[in-house]
Each structure stands twice: as C-alpha cells, then as structure tokens.
C-alpha cells in the first residue's frame, strides 16, 4: 500500500437512453457522498480505538447506515483503512500542491503544516494511533507508514542539503542528521500534544529548528 495508490475506482457505465445520464450522475454523486460519510466516520472510530479495535459495525453506526450497507461500499476492513489513509494523505498534501518550495521554504512549509494539523485534532490522533499500530509488520498499514516516513525524511534531507550548500545550515550539522532530528521532534511533540493540548507545537518546533540554522525562519 502506497500513498500514491488510488482508492476511488472509476466506473464506466454504458448508457442506453438519453434519460439515463442525469439519473446515473445523481446516483453516482449519492454513492460518492456515502463513501465520504463512511470515511469520515472511520477516521473518528480509528482515531479513538485504533484499527484493530475499531469495528466496522461501529463505523456503520457512526455513518448512520447498516453494516451491510457499509460493506457494499467497503467490503473489508482493509479496504476502509486504505480509504482512510488516502484521506489522510490528501489532507496533508492539498495545501502544498500549488507551490514547489525548496530549501528553507520546505522547512517553513513543514512547520506551518504542523501548526495547521493542530487545528484538526482528528488528523493528528489518526496518524499517531495508526502509525503506532503499524510498527508490527503484519499490520495492513505497515508498508504505508514505512513509505510515508521514508519520503518525509527524504524531503527534509533534500531541503537541508540545499540549505547547507547556501550556508544556511550550521556547518557542524549533517543535512541527513538535521532531517532525522526535525522529523523525530515533530512526531514526539505531536505525541506529547495529544496528552497536553496547551503545548504550542508550531512555536516549539520552529524554536528547535532555528538552533540548527544560520538564517531566520
């Protein structure tokens, strides 16, 4: 399972009459909305109980539908998890799609994104709960989080390497080490924040990162 994997299938319907098109579009829109409702309910349930203990019946109840009705859209729990992870990826990336930051701008965007996520507690809770469970190699999200975290470190590594080449990273700090430290600190602060919402993650992360740089963030 990777972040790029498409969750929503494209359905091709052979139309036989001109009247069928509006009806099909309406039915498709309704079905798509039901899938979004189910995913939203699953985000809540998995954030609260984790993937292992969060039941499909609970998700169905939260979505206001029958268990059988939900299984029509997501036949298995793994299918639903894939949809939830895709939702999480979309939430994390949608703000950066229109820009291509490099160097220090990547670090600034990273810290800004962390601050934005705090305004969406479900996103932070979901990642922390699911990623903790995914440490086990038999967890269906194991490969997803391995790939996600690998790409996150690579993104930060490239940013710090660019900064180092421009004299913006302290000379005694290796870009790869800086990337790992920022990534680990981000995860650690988010974990602490789940227990103490008074922590200003964005401010503390910026203060920590600033100590590695020769420029102002």
In short:
The protein has about 220 residues and is an all-alpha fold. It is about 70% helix and about 0% strand.
Helix-strand topology string? HHHHHHHHH
- Flag low-confidence runs: 1-21
Shape: elongated
| Number of separate strands | 0
Q: What's the alpha carbon Rg, rounded to whole Å? A: 21 Å
Helix content: 55-70%
Number of helices: 9
- What can be said about the biggest beta sheet? none
Question: What's the overall average pLDDT, rounded?
Answer: 80
Distance between the termini: 35 Å
Question: What's the helix and strand layout?
Answer:
Elements: H1 20-53, H2 56-63, H3 67-73, H4 77-93, H5 104-118, H6 121-133, H7 142-165, H8 175-195, H9 201-210
Describe this structure in words.
The chain has 217 residues and is mainly alpha-helical. 69% of the residues lie in helices and 0% in strands. The chain has helices spanning 20-53, 56-63, 67-73, 77-93, 104-118, 121-133, 142-165, 175-195, 201-210. Residues 1-21 have low confidence and may be disordered.
Provide the descriptors you would attach to this structure in a database record.
217 residues; 69% helix; 0% strand; disordered N terminus
